[in-house]
Write a structure and sequence with these properties.
Shape: globular
Number of strands: 6
Helix content: 10-25%
Distance between the termini: 60 Å
Oligomer: single chain
Length: 175
C-alpha cells in the first residue's frame, strides 16, 4: 500500500510543458515493391508504382473496385480461367522519360523471384514460374508470360485457374 501512494505522488498534479519530442516511426520496411510487406510501405508506394490492374484511388467502398492501371482495359480471360490477355495503354513512360514496355511486366515478376521477394508465392501459378523459382539466377524463363513490345500485349497463362488472380495482379509486388 505504501508503494502505491509513492507512485501516485510522483505524477505531476497538473500539466507541464516539456521540450520537443522527436519520434521515428519505423514501420516502413522497404520502398521496393518486391520487398515491402507492411501496409505503411504499400501506402507510401501507392502513388509511385503502378500495376496492370489497380484499385480506384477513392475513399469508401468504391475504393475496392478493380480498374485498369497500366492496362488499357480489364483483361480478356479464357473460358477455362487460365489465360489472361492485356494490352498496355499507349504512351506509358517511366519518370525518366523511357518508354514502358510489355516485357517490363515479365521482368517485374522475374525480379521478384531473383530478389526472393515477399510476394513471389502469389505468382507461382503462372506456367513456368514454379520451375523458374527453383533456379532464378540461372537465366531461365517464365514460359507463362508472353509479351509483345510492338503490340503492347501481355498474355499470362496459369497452370491452374485462380479466381483471385486479378486481385493478385493488382498487388504492389507486380509493379
Amino acid at each position: 500500500m505504501k508503494r502505491r501512494s509513492r507512485l501516485r505522488s510522483a505524477a505531476p498534479q497538473h500539466s507541464q510543458k516539456f521540450g520537443t519530442l522527436n519520434a521515428v516511426l519505423d514501420t516502413i520496411d522497404f520502398l521496393d515493391p518486391q520487398q515491402a510487406y507492411t501496409g505503411q510501405s504499400w501506402w507510401a508506394m501507392w502513388n509511385v508504382y503502378e500495376t496492370l490492374l489497380t484499385y480506384k484511388h477513392v475513399d469508401g467502398p468504391a475504393g475496392y473496385s478493380l480498374v485498369p492501371g497500366l492496362a488499357q482495359s480489364l483483361p480478356k480471360i479464357s473460358s477455362n480461367g487460365r489465360v489472361y490477355k492485356f494490352t498496355l495503354r499507349k504512351g506509358l513512360k517511366y519518370s525518366n522519360g523511357k518508354r514502358l514496355l510489355a516485357s517490363d511486366f515479365k521482368w517485374a515478376i522475374k525480379r521478384g523471384f531473383l530478389a526472393t521477394g515477399q510476394g513471389v508465392g502469389f505468382y507461382t501459378d503462372i506456367a513456368g514460374a514454379e520451375a523458374y523459382s527453383k533456379h532464378p539466377t540461372k537465366g531461365g524463363n517464365i514460359s507463362g508470360i508472353i509479351t509483345n513490345n510492338k503490340k503492347r500485349t501481355i498474355t499470362i497463362k496459369l497452370s491452374t485457374p485462380r479466381g483471385d488472380f486479378l486481385t493478385i495482379l493488382a498487388l504492389i509486388f507486380a509493379a
